[in-house]
Specification:
The chain is an alpha+beta fold. Helices cover about 25% and strands about 25% of the residues. The chain has a six-stranded antiparallel β-sheet with strand order 1-2-6-5-4-3.
Length: about 160
C-alpha cells in the first residue's frame, strides 16, 4: 500500500512540474515562447502617413512600432503599441510650419532613439505645437519640430492606422 501512495505522490509531482513547465514555456504546448526582439525600423513615408497625419511634406522618414509592456505575458487583454519616428522635411517646410502654428520650446528635452536617428539623439531646439496637443485624442500623434534640423519627431500610443 505504501508503494501505491508513493507512486501517486510521485505522479502528482510529475504532473505539477509538467504543467508548470508547459504553462511558462509558451501559450500552447509544443510552441516556442515568442520574444519581443528589436522592432523593425521602416522607411516608407506613405505607410507612416496612414497612421500619422503629418503637418509637412516628408523628404525621408525612419519610424517603428514597438510593443510596450510584457510581450508574452499571461494576462489576457490588449497590449499597447507605440509608434515613434523621425521625419526629415523637404526644404522650407520646417520654416513654414514654425510660422503657421503656435510652437513652444520643449522643456523636458528630447531623446530621439538612436535607431531612428543617430545624429538627432540629443539635439536641442525642439518645439511642441500647443494647438495640436490640446486637440489630441487617444491614439493621436504628438509632434515636435526642430527647425534647425528641418525635422519632426512624432510618437503616438496605440495609433489608429488606416488600412
Amino acid at each position: 500500500m505504501s508503494v501505491v501512495r508513493r507512486l501517486r505522490g510521485v505522479g502528482a509531482v510529475v504532473l505539477l512540474v509538467a504543467t508548470a513547465v508547459g504553462c511558462t514555456a509558451s501559450g500552447r504546448p509544443g510552441e516556442p515562447t515568442k520574444s519581443a526582439g528589436a522592432p523593425e525600423v521602416r522607411t516608407d513615408a506613405s505607410r507612416l502617413a496612414r497612421c500619422v497625419e503629418l503637418p509637412g511634406k516628408p523628404e525621408k522618414v525612419r519610424w517603428r512600432v514597438r510593443t510596450l509592456g510584457t510581450v508574452d505575458g499571461r494576462a489576457p487583454g490588449p497590449t499597447d503599441h507605440q509608434l515613434e519616428g523621425v521625419v526629415w522635411l523637404v526644404d522650407g517646410e520646417a520654416a513654414r510650419l514654425s510660422v503657421e502654428g503656435l510652437w513652444e520650446p520643449e522643456p523636458a528635452g528630447v531623446s530621439v532613439p538612436e535607431e531612428l536617428s543617430p545624429t538627432l539623439g540629443k539635439a536641442h531646439g525642439w518645439t511642441r505645437s500647443t494647438g495640436q496637443e490640446d486637440e489630441a485624442a487617444e491614439g493621436a500623434p504628438h509632434i515636435l519640430l526642430n527647425q534647425g534640423a528641418n525635422a519632426l519627431y512624432v510618437w503616438a500610443l496605440n495609433p489608429q492606422c488606416q488600412s
